[in-house]
C-alpha cells in the first residue's frame, strides 16, 4: 500500500511526481486535453482522491505544469544563447522557435492557460502563475537582448508572436481523432499536415526580419 507523503520534502517529491506524470501523459496521448486526474494518479501509484492533498483540481495541476514549463523555456533560451552576441533577427528567431519546438507540452498549454486554466483556479494561484510566468518572460527577453542585435522592444514583440503562433500551430497540427478522420476523408481540409516546427521557424524569422526592417525604415 502506498503511504501518504508526510514530510514537506515527501510532499514536494510527490507533487513533482504528479507533474511529471501529467507531462508524460500529455506527450503520450497527444495533448493535455486528454489528461485526467485518474490517469495521473494511477501513473504515480496514488489513490485518485489523494491528489487533492497536492492540487485542488486538474486545472491547478496543469497550471502548475505551465508555470514550470516557463522556467524550462527560460533555461533553454539561456543555454541556446550562451555567451553569443550579435545574433541577427533570423538567428534570434531561430533560437526562440527551436527551443519552443523542443517543449511541445508548453506550446500546447499556452492555449489552455488562456482559455480556462487561469480562470478556473483561485485568485492567489492565478497571481502566482502570472508572477512567475512574467518573471520568466522578462528573463528570456533580457537574455535575448544581450545576445541579439534586435532591440528589447522588438524582442518583446517577437516573443508575443512566438507564444501566439506556437499555441495556435500546435493545436492545428495535433487534431482530435474526429478531425483527423475528417481530414483523411477530405484532404483539401487537411491542414493537419501543417509541419509545426518548420512553419513556426519560418514565420518567426519573417516576423523578426520585418520588425528589424521597420526600425531601419524609420
Which architecture of the largest domain per CATH? Orthogonal Bundle
Mind telling me the CATH superfamily name of the largest domain?
A: Tetracycline Repressor, domain 2
Give the biggest beta sheet: none
CATH class of the largest domain: Mainly Alpha
Keywords: DNA-binding
DNA-binding region: 36-55
Protein name: HTH tetR-type domain-containing protein
Domain HTH tetR-type: 12-73
Report on the structure:
By secondary structure, the protein is mainly α. Helix 3 (58-81) crosses helix 5 and helix 4 (89-101) packs antiparallel against helix 9 (196-217). The mean pLDDT is 92. Helices cover 73% and strands 0% of the residues. It has 2 domains: 1-55; 58-217, Tetracycline Repressor, domain 2, CATH 1.10.357. The chain has helices at residues 8-29, 37-44, 58-81, 89-101, 104-117, 123-147, 152-173, 177-185, 196-217. This is HTH tetR-type domain-containing protein. Residues 12-73 form the HTH tetR-type domain. Residues 36-55 bind DNA. GO terms for molecular function: DNA binding. Pfam families: TetR_C_34.
